[in-house]
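User: Predict the structure for this protein chain, please.
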Amino acid sequence: MPADPVVQAPDGRGPEDPDVRLREATHPSGWVNPDPAGRYDLVVIGGGTAGLVSAMGARGLGARVALVERGLLGGDCLNTGCVPSKALLRSARAAADARRAPALGVPVAGVEADFAAVMRRMRERRADISPHDSAERLRAAGVDVYFGDARFTGRSEVEVGGTTLTFRRAVIATGGRPAVPPIPGLAAVPYLTSETLFGLTEQPRRLAIVGAGPIGCEIAQAFARLGSDVTLIDQAAQVLPREDVDAAALIARRLSADGVTLRLGGAIAQVSSAAGEVRLQFDGSGAECQRCERLLVAAGRTPNVESLDLGAAGVAFDKEGIVVDDRLRTSNRRIFAAGDVCSSFRFTHAADALARIVIQNALFFGRKRASALVIPWCTYTDPEVAHVGGYDGETITIPLSEVDRAVVDEEPDGFVRVHHERGRLLGCTAVASRAGEMIGVATHALTHGASLSELGSTIYPYPTLNNAFRAAGDAYGRTRLTPAVRRALRRYFRLF
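Assistant: Here is the predicted structure, written as structure tokens:
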């Protein structure tokens, strides 16, 4: 497995350099692993979101806790995922907003992005956030932090750096890493993944991205808005294959409008490099070839399980990760798992929620079920695409062109679509500039069994995009005015 490049010490940089600040917070130089404090109530393997929440939550309740991390604390979210990508997207959106400003009566000319400055700002914001996930914060809370590779040596013990930690319970939270598809020739050419992308300091003139899922779409739009010539490639017939078809089509149109070239519905036959460029061959004959300066592989994730020696602990796993039951317990009843290493919901907020279940079930003999969670997700393109629940049942769609706030903000492209069964909410898709915030309304409604009628009777500040939910509730109410009900009302008002 390739090492996280950020772990390497940035030679010659001072303590205020953002990469130095990040490393010193999340994997301090000179850190000395503590001596084991007897048998731990909980040993946490992995210092990403699931691991940090498990460790801090258990320690806050009084448990003796050890956490083991081989790279940087904070995991993908802080180092190579949510935080750096959203910082990058913010800069890209600023460039796009400036180019669209004339539509708002604010002429702006000559908009150009300073790519080096954009990436420097991203690293600074990442370093600013890193103390939240730092080794010092964990130590101050009473968690014993061990840096090194963890390996099970028995059903209730794990070894790290030559030291054996024994435990009453353990949680595996080792996360995942970018999956690399078996494309002929790919291993022989230089390519980027999410683990190396944010180390760029020079902007690629031509960037090809393999994978039109959330990561691929977000990065494609960002780099195009910052000035790169971007091609987005996927075997699927649509971008964001897991999403609502209309939502995906809208995002495809917006990506194209931002200058992204879409190549969908075809497989890459061969990858090669020559004369300082990467070449992607599509038809196997060499007649059709995509040339780029840099290639980003964004083709999903694979769980980190190989180096743990899970067999020694009696923990079952497969290609999808650690096998767990609905209480997140592995085949070893002393060991639980949380986060990307065991879940199909590979999101930071899902890892947080699963870790909270582990704390209850592992330490307090709880019976909390992962299947009971209502987990939303969001792709942070512009507009954003957010979803929660299912896609079954009847649908009601409110176009943003009918929502006043979207109209005055010049953002009428998008919609809120609810799925319901006789007014009982089953799912929701939102496509809007702030869909990630909006989906919380539907998530709360699903979690607590609210109906469309209750969404319609909720008072939302005006004007906000969330008024789309009230409109959806009102639309459902109108469907209940059947011909028989209308006749009864006419008779009532004649007698009124």
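The domain at 186-299 is CATH 3.50.50.60 (FAD/NAD(P)-binding domain).
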